[in-house]
Amino acid sequence: MDFPILYTHEFDFTEDDFRMIQKLIYDYAGISLSDAKQNLVYSRLSRRLRENNITKFSSYIQLLAKNKKEWQLFINALTTNLTSFFREPHHFPVLAEHIKNFDTKETIALWSCASSTGEEPYSMAMTMVELFGSYTPPVRIIATDIDTQALEKAKAGIYSMDKVDMLTPDQLRPFFLKGKCENEGLVKIREELQEIVTFRQVNLLSDYWPVRGPFAAIFCRNVMIYLDKKTQANLLQRFAPLLAPHGLLFVGHSENIVLISNLFKLHSRTVYELQK
Ligand SMILES: C[S@@+](CC[C@H](N)C(=O)[O-])C[C@H]1O[C@@H](n2cnc3c(N)ncnc32)[C@H](O)[C@@H]1O
Asked: Distance between CA 165 and CA 169 in Å, rounded?
C-alpha cells in the first residue's frame, strides 16, 4: 500500500516512514511519539539524512538496520535533552535535608537516571559539596542517559555562560572555572566536582541496568513524560528495590506517579518515598 508523501521539500517523508520511526524509537527507548510529532521527526532527522547523502526517509530507515553508529545517532536525534542547572530548584534543599539522615561512614549513592548534558547531576554534586563543606563528600553520583552525545557533553563539563546565568556568584565561584582567550564565554565544571559524578550510558528500557544501589535518592526527572503509562509503571517497579530504606524518588513537575504506581507515596512536592 502506498502512503501519501508528507513532505516533498528536501527529503521524501511518508506516513509509512513516520509510523516506522514511531515504532523503532518506542521499541528501543520507550519514547512514545504522538502523531502530532511528524514535523519534529522530519526536522530532527533531516541532518542525519543530509550527512548520509540520503534523500528518502525510507532509505534512511534501511540504513539504520545495518549501521550501529547511525542507529545511536538516530536515537540521539530523537531524544529531547532540555535541562538546566538547579532545574526545579525546590528539589535541592529537600535532597540536602534528606542526606543529613544518612550514616556518612558509608558512601552515599545517588542516581540521576536521565542526566542529559550533566546539569542535573552536577547540581546534585554542588548540593552535596555545600552540605558537607568539602569537595570530597561521602557521596558518589551515577549519572546515566541513553544519549551518547549528551553524555559526552556532560563528561566534558563545559557550558556556555548563558547556561549559568541563573546561578549566584556564590554558586559560580566554587564550582566553575571561567574560560579565557579562545574559551571566552565558556565555563568548565571544576575537576573536584567532576570526580563525584560518573557518567555512563544506560537505556532505561533495557533489561539490565549496570548501576549499584541502594540509592539514597534517585532523580528521574522529565523523562517519564516521554514514556507511556505502561513503561512508566514498569520503571517505578524497578526503581523500588534500588532505593535505600527511606530513599527518595525525585520526579519532574508534571509527573504524578501515584496515579501510576501504588508502590510510592508523596513525601513533598514531586518527591516520593516507598509505601511502608
Ligand atoms: C528532558 S531531559 C531531562 C534531563 C534532566 N533529568 C532534567 O530534568 O533536567 C530527558 C532525558 O531523558 C533521556 N532519555 C530518554 N529516553 C531514555 C531512555 N529510554 N533511557 C535513558 N534515558 C532516556 C534523554 O536522552 C534526555 O537526555
From this structure: 10
